[in-house]
Design brief:
Length: 559
């Protein structure tokens, strides 16, 4: 019963070949065995669909076979087979099985007894290989098919398990599944910058015919070019992540993996895959044939592939990939430091670039002074190319370094936060003539809650063993302004930036006993229930002030 059903559904051409196996007497055992082996291949093959892309999964060293034949009634017709390897190189072949003259069902005039064949007559050759390829490029075979012939496609992967896509069509008049490439499918590099590369390519004829259903997608990576879209997808998956089903069509935020970042800018949808071998960036740019790739790293080689994608069929074709190396980052501008001169440096937190200062020593011992004005800054100092200091700055910082005459020091400064930062820098061999005054252990201002009234506030601050001048300033502020005022305060600015009406008093004091080097001051004439910002400025011998940390105090509402 099972065999009856088998013969019922066996395709016509395979049935003819099977009948032939039973009707022709082979002269030798070896030729008979070979022919039976060929037919066995058909029994263990699959039918290849016409006009549809088929995905074929291959196991290492195990061949896989598909067959196809023309519809009845057509004598000769063109056909094409396109195979796209999606990973490693594969081997694939097309074999044709032709029916010999005089086989059952195809009797010729004068043949009355087709079952009787002379024992000396040899069976004609029925199988031949018409195409063979080994590699990982997209290949297309075009030929003419006969209704009396069967075609067998055989695939083999000798490196590892993989998959390919196969497209067979016998209808060459109703268009193509794959978008067409131009006569010159190369990608041209027309501009290279430190962080950008500009590309252009010739338009696909498919764009001109089907503009609404065609788009270009660009893939950027640091490893190598890809010969097909499915090869690119496979490579990204093998890096340990899942990709959306189709690179060009499934760029959906709902399908993104944790290692993927989606960027939507100026109607462009980009996906950046964070893989172990670097970034793999995918950008679909519509029907534009010129694109500038942004946000690249300087002095890095990148590989660029462009795919023309049919949005209706998911089919794609690959341009010939190219590569380019971004320009080296220019040497940062270096400012010369002169003995005793103060340089004010403002750093852009968004660009995160180093600001460089250079100093050539005229003495063995050098003293660097850093006064942090705003934000957070990291300093890195090298002497003749070797690192001698690297740290985050806080307040006022002195660094004493000992080397040789004519040593070259390079001071590099960088903001460690997104907002702008600023710092004053000085280099000098004369530490006994300090630019800034001697500082107390703490620059905090303390207020006494129990001494607050509706009209006055008492504050205190530490002094030093050196007689110095201290000036107190006050400023009325609103409650919602407190955080902004404290965050934006420039600790390097002096009293010259303040209004005269804000000045409270100036006084001199010191104490040789640091335990008693504390002074207090009661500020009167204030309004009840009001916030005030208090600042104290310390002046040294050079006249450059140091600003204590601002203090906000609210007077009592009722007394």
């Amino acid at each position: 019963l099972k065999m009856s059903w088998f013969w019922l559904y066996l395709p016509f051409h395979l049935l003819m070949a099977t009948c032939l196996c039973h009707s022709i007497k082979a002269p030798t055992t070896s030729s008979q065995q070979s022919f039976k082996t060929d037919l066995f291949n058909f029994y263990h093959s699959l039918i290849l669909a016409d006009g549809k892309e088929t995905t074929v999964h291959l196991l290492k060293d195990i061949p896989k076979r598909y067959y196809f034949a023309l519809e009845e009634g057509r004598v000769l017709a063109p056909f094409s087979v396109t195979v796209t390897p999606c990973d490693v190189p594969i081997e694939w072949s097309i074999l044709v099985y032709k029916s010999p003259p005089g086989f059952p069902g195809k009797a010729t005039p004068g043949d009355h007894d087709t079952q009787e064949v002379s024992k000396s007559q040899k069976a004609p050759s029925m199988v031949s290989t018409i195409f063979n390829y080994k590699g990982n490029s997209v290949e297309t075979y075009m030929g003419m098919s006969s209704h009396s012939a069967l075609y067998l496609l055989e695939f083999l992967s000798t490196e590892r398990d993989t998959h390919v896509t196969v497209y067979l069509t016998t209808d060459t008049t109703s268009g193509h599944l794959y978008p067409e490439l131009p006569m010159d499918p190369r990608i041209d590099v027309i501009g290279i910058g430190h962080t950008t590369v500009t590309l252009t390519w010739k338009h696909s004829p498919s764009v001109l015919q089907h503009r609404e259903s065609i788009q270009y997608c660009l893939l950027v990576n640091e490893k190598h070019n890809y010969k097909s879209l499915c090869a690119a997808e496979t490579a990204i998956r093998s890096s340990g992540m899942k990709l959306p089903p189709t690179l060009a069509l499934s760029l959906s935020p709902y399908l993104l993996e944790p290692q993927q970042v989606m960027i939507l800018s100026n109607s462009e949808l980009s996906i950046i895959n964070k893989v172990s071998s670097g970034e793999v960036r995918q950008v679909c740019v519509g029907t534009r044939n010129t694109y500038t790739v942004p946000n690249l790293s300087p002095s890095t080689q990148y590989y660029f592939d462009v795919f023309i994608v049919n949005l209706l069929t998911n089919a794609s074709a690959a341009y010939t990939g190219t590569f380019a190396r971004t320009l080296e980052e220019p040497e940062p501008k270096v400012t010369e430091l002169k003995d005793g001169k103060v340089i004010h440096v403002v750093l852009d937190g968004k660009k995160q670039k180093f600001y460089s200062l250079q100093y050539q020593a005229r003495h063995k011992k050098i003293h660097f002074t850093f006064q942090l004005c705003q934000g957070q800054i990291r300093v890195h100092i090298t002497r003749n190319g070797k690192t001698v200091a690297s740290e985050n700055l806080s307040g006022l910082r002195y660094l004493s370094l000992k080397g040789k005459l004519l040593d070259t020091y390079l001071v590099q400064l960088r903001s460690t936060e997104e907002s702008n930062s600023s710092v004053n820098v000085q280099a000098s061999p004369h530490f006994h003539k300090p630019l800034f005054p001697l500082l107390p252990e703490s620059l905090k201002i303390k207020s006494f809650s129990k001494l607050r009234t509706c009209r006055s506030v008492t504050i205190a601050w530490l002094g030093t063993q050196e007689e110095s001048k201290y000036c107190v300033y006050r400023k009325r502020i609103e409650e919602d302004e407190i955080w902004r005022e404290l965050q934006s305060a420039d600790r390097c600015s002096g009293p010259e930036s303040r209004r005269k009406s804000e000045k409270v008093l100036c006084k001199y004091f010191y104490d040789l006993n640091l335990q008693r080097a504390v002074t207090t001051e009661t500020i009167k004439g204030l309004e009840a229930g009001t916030f005030y910002l208090f600042d104290v400025y310390l002046f040294g011998p050079s006249g450059i002030p140091v600003r204590y940390h601002s203090k906000v105090v609210k007077t009592r509402k009722k007394c």
